[in-house]
């Protein structure tokens, strides 16, 4: 790579120019560049050595995922505001995961006075984050972004945990489409109108901390929100998500990263029964 090209890429990364194309650049789409093989040449422990642009995967101090330990959290009362809308969406097999992308204004979440529009969702199994050391069977990430250059942290990801149980109704709607793209990287399926509200991610309690993307380039400055309410998913649904991606990504969860004295906040509002 020419020096001038590298400098330009670095500047763009620092500026977080998050239109639809820039989010794609932030999360690596070509899984041939990395994998999840433990001890492999392209596995998680090697991500930071594969490219200079991925150095944060090795040297970053605020990396994700981490463990949410109740012994370390600060409890705060502050309701989260979500405003999602039905919109046309496309399902894609990215090789290392299955991604659902909305095309246009699918609504947003409001964090510290800033609106973060919803862009895409994808699944990891098992879960990447843990709660008090417990790892769940699946974790859904809803990726939000703002194009406001005056905002320091421009990516916000909401995480939802799942344990084995009754089938997830939202995933049930996608099963046929996912089945049709097994081992077909870069395959797309037009889904028509998908309502993000159907994911049912409402929770009265959630963790929040500052972290990073969990895939290369492991960009830091990501606002993480993790719902404490655990949903259910069937074994067949988890199995299908694993079969659809390439073999080395069947368990596509990055190992836990050091907390490095970061603050973890537990937000409460209303009934705390969930």
> How many domains comprise the coordinates?
1
Query: So what's the overall shape?
Result: globular
Task: Assign the CATH topology.
Answer: Carbonic Anhydrase II
Mean of pLDDT: 87
Quantity of strands, as a count: 16
The Rg value, from CA coordinates, equals 18 Å
According to CATH, the homologous superfamily is Alpha carbonic anhydrase
* Estimated structural class: alpha+beta
Q: Strand-and-helix sequence, N→C?
A: HHHHEEEEEEEEEEEHHEEEEHE
Percent of sequence in beta strands: 25-35%
The main β sheet shows up as: 13 strands, mixed
Query: How much helix is in the residues?
Result: 10-25%
Individual helix count: 7
Give the C-level CATH assignment. Answer: Alpha Beta
Low-confidence runs? 1-25
Q: How far from one another are the termini?
A: 50 Å
CATH architecture: Roll
Enzyme class: lyase
Domain Alpha-carbonic anhydrase: 32-268
Cofactor: Zn(2+)
Organism: Forsythia ovata
Looking at this protein, list some descriptive labels.
zinc ion binding; Carbonic_anhydrase_a-class_CS; alpha+beta; 274 residues; Carbonic anhydrase; Carbonic Anhydrase II; CA_dom_sf; disordered N terminus; globular; 34% strand; 16 strands; 13-stranded mixed beta sheet
Topology summary:
Blueprint: H1 3-15, H2 20-26, H3 47-50, H4 56-59, E1 67-68, E2 73-77, E3 81-84, E4 87-93, E5 98-102, E6 107-111, E7 114-124, E8 130-131, E9 134-135, E10 138-145, E11 155-164, H5 169-172, H6 175-179, E12 188-194, E13 205-212, E14 220-227, E15 231-233, H7 235-244, E16 264-268
Parallel strand pairs: 1-8, 2-16, 11-14, 11-15
Antiparallel strand pairs: 3-6, 4-5, 4-12, 5-7, 6-7, 7-10, 8-9, 10-11, 13-14, 13-16
